[in-house]
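Provenance

Sequences were taken from public entries as deposited. Structures were produced by running a predictor on each sequence independently, with no templates supplied. The record for Selenocysteine-specific elongation factor from Photobacterium iliopiscarium is shown for reference.
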Amino acid sequence: MAVISTQYQAVVGLAGHVDHGKTALIEALTGMLTARPHEQQLGMTQDLGFAHFQDDHGNTIGVVDVPGHERYLRNMVAGVWHLNVLLLVVAADEGWMPMTTSHLDVAHAMGIEDIVVCINKRDKVNAEQLAEIEDQVLEQVMERSGLLPEIVTVSALKKDNIEALRQLLIDTVQVNIARHKIIAPVNNDDNTVVESATDPLMYIDRVFVVNGIGTVLTGTLAQGQLAIGDKVRCHPSNLVGTVRSIQAYHQQLTSVSATCRVAVNVKGVGRKDIGRGHLITGINQPMTLRDQCIVRLTKTATKLKVKKQRQVEVAMGTWHGTARLSYIPNTELARLVFEKPIPLLFGQRLAMIQKGGSGLQHGAEVVWTDYIFGYQKRRLYDVLDNLPQQLQPESQRQMLLVLQGYFECHDVDFKPTEQQTFIAPFCFDNQWLADMSQQLETLLSAGISMASAELCSRLRINDAVIELVMQRLKLQQKVHLSYGKWCVGQGDNEDDLPQDALDILHQIRQFGKAGLELNKVKIVGGKKWLRQLSHQKYITALDENIYFDMGVYLDLVKAVIADHQPHDRITMTDIKDRTDLSRKYSIPLANRMEKDGWVKRDDDERIILKAWH
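Predicted structure for Selenocysteine-specific elongation factor:
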């Protein structure tokens, strides 16, 4: 095959049954021993081990050694959550084992598409037995995953055929990288700046403190780039830290790109604040923390006959915990409810393991994380159940367009299609936008003015979306904002007022019937803005010190006039009772109404001059 000339990095994971020679194989392949001293004494890997080797062009390929014993299946999941290639190891003298099945099932459930099978210890069997093992392995992998694996036979202890394995891994990695188009400049220790198309994403598998350096986080950088000086956010703690140093494969770097094993020294994050299973992202990367989600089941254990609610262990990235699993009838969907909120991403792969056991019950991918209103459930389930088999970021956008007519997008390079309109930060389906605009105009044409919050509640639409659509209609001179409410047609728009005036108006509205008293509240800008707001009839002054929002004032006038007709008489006690105002406010209100021509004073009574209409 053609060699990829652009620099790249990749990660290969080794999986397989305990004592099938994974650790010895890594040592033969890389010259590095991944087993810790106590693991060497036990003769089994308990947690993740790491090594690396390079191809003939200096590209680094990381190697993750995952535990083979069933007790450490959750650690195994942490090792395969984001790999370019899985190297499945089978001992020639023992053949396919139950944990080989579990590891293959988990890897396939986590979305790994490229599998190389290494039959180790070939020196312990004859040619006929080796051929039988190859047939067995091929049949098992194809039956359980539908994938056709490359197979190579070696003897790790005798260093036999290791070079063929190394080249096969390099070839498979390059095919994987070319298919996913994830080639990117890496290992930039020459102070050059490299732009990354995506935000960084790294699940943490280890955290430790180095004297004189601080907190160090290790994991696999699955996407994007990290550089010294970058701000990163830790989830679920929401803490922000600064990248102070980067190490990858025993080299100090100024920046590094995915996919790569990396150790990052982060300033501003303490050892107690972060741990295994936590997630590192870019400072501004949108991230959802939820205690439940909807997943699409991608793989189900054949022995799982009855689909009933159950407790499961969920492994996702390097995180694992318990959740309640509920199946959604007549779909391939299920709901997971976690014990506490965790970071969730659209399309994120996860594995569900029998609680307290080692069998894979389901592989799944996250397809919905938001709250679901009862009225939208059936339509939502239909849309989610018909998502494309291969999920991409665009899949989520198309799903949201079908479901709600818009989606939020912060991608600076995003370009809408001819059927879409982009009004930052939302992209709208043109037909939905036209229909919604018409619906809003019709609603307001009934003569009822509504605030944005009322429109959101009535139409069940995001408040930020309503605001954008209404501003668009305002620019088209189809609506205007008056007294905090949208009205159909042209008119003065209060949101065009200077910001200082808007702040004062908002402050007065917060006081409501209590009114704003100048001797109690300091107004920035003094009486200048009060005079302007009064002149434009956004507020009214009951006297020199008491100001009401015009909408509140008119509601009080309506309460006083009620069903009275001209020439009817009303007492101050009536005014006080009808408005529920104290005498301190009811008298200034009556005086203001007299100035505005609603009433005329006659001793202790007020004569109604005009009816409310």
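The radius of gyration is 34 Å.
The first helix runs from residue 22 to 30.
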